[in-house]
């Protein structure tokens, strides 16, 4: 976990993508500190510095409950989550079951729909392959499909991204894959969203969550703003942090201070 202040009543909550950890938001941490915005970033079990998951086949809600437990330990009563991909799935479940915690939502490169049957099957097969063969093949695949052409040309950024992914354990990867396969369809929740909501897609995300898929969250909810980040695919905060921060931080400030989203 990481944050500017402990026991602050309200904070931005960073929820990372699979198979990364909180370090994928390294470019946001400094920016929020400079803006004096409290935040917390949490690793999921089996990722980063978190302990191994207690089950190799957990319900998806396990991850949400883990996050809520950490927030409770820190005395945080309200959050504005920024969730990328898997982090976005957790955000939907947070809103579904812990709505009293939510003051705003920032969905990034994610979707509300559940996996189709074939994708569920593939996740289980991939989980077993990681346990049998290790995670190297998965990391190479993720580096390919999750990044834009511009990111691929940035050797230092790709190397850091690879290092972050390598901190994931095979057990954590397998459990997360199986948990995501069991997540429900969250599209019915979209019409219930009643807090300021920002939806962000990577303009070059052609292989994981294309912009038209991400935009459905905004189109079918009371979304305040939809953004597409240039020179970014599935990991906009990491791939193009300057654009992401310039757009998101003023919006966050307006929510933190008075609850009304600023027009960008």
TrEMBL record:
GO terms for cellular component: membrane. InterPro entries: AB_hydrolase_1 (IPR000073), AB_hydrolase_fold (IPR029058), AB_hydrolase_sf (IPR050266), Epox_hydrolase-like (IPR000639). This is Alpha/beta hydrolase. It comes from Aquifex aeolicus. GO terms for molecular function: hydrolase activity. Residues 11-128 form the AB hydrolase-1 domain. Transmembrane segments: none annotated. Pfam families: Abhydrolase_1. Keywords: Hydrolase.
């Amino acid at each position: 976990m990481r944050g500017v202040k402990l026991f602050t009543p309200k904070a931005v909550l960073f929820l990372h993508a699979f198979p990364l950890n909180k370090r994928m938001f390294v470019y946001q941490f400094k920016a929020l500190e400079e803006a004096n915005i409290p935040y917390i970033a949490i690793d999921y079990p089996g990722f980063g510095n978190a302990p191994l998951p207690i089950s190799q086949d957990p319900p998806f809600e396990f991850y949400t409950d883990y996050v809520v437990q950490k927030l409770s330990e820190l005395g945080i009563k309200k959050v504005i989550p920024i969730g990328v991909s898997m982090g976005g799935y957790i955000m939907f479940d947070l809103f579904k079951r812990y709505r009293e915690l939510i003051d705003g939502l920032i969905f990034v490169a994610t979707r509300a729909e559940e996996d189709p049957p074939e994708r569920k099957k593939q996740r289980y097969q991939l989980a077993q392959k990681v346990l049998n063969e290790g995670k190297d093949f998965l990391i190479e695949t993720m580096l390919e499909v999750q990044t834009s052409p511009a990111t691929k040309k940035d050797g230092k950024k790709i190397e850091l991204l690879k290092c972050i992914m390598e901190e994931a354990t095979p057990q954590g990867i397998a459990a997360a894959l199986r948990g995501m396969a069991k997540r429900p369809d969250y599209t019915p929740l979209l019409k219930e969203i009643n807090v300021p909501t920002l939806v962000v897609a990577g303009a070059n995300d052609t292989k994981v969550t294309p912009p038209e898929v991400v935009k459905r969250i905004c189109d079918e909810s009371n979304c305040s703003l939809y953004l597409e980040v240039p020179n970014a695919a599935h990991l906009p905060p990491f791939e193009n942090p300057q654009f992401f921060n310039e757009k998101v931080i003023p919006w966050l400030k307006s929510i933190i201070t008075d609850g009304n989203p600023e027009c960008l």
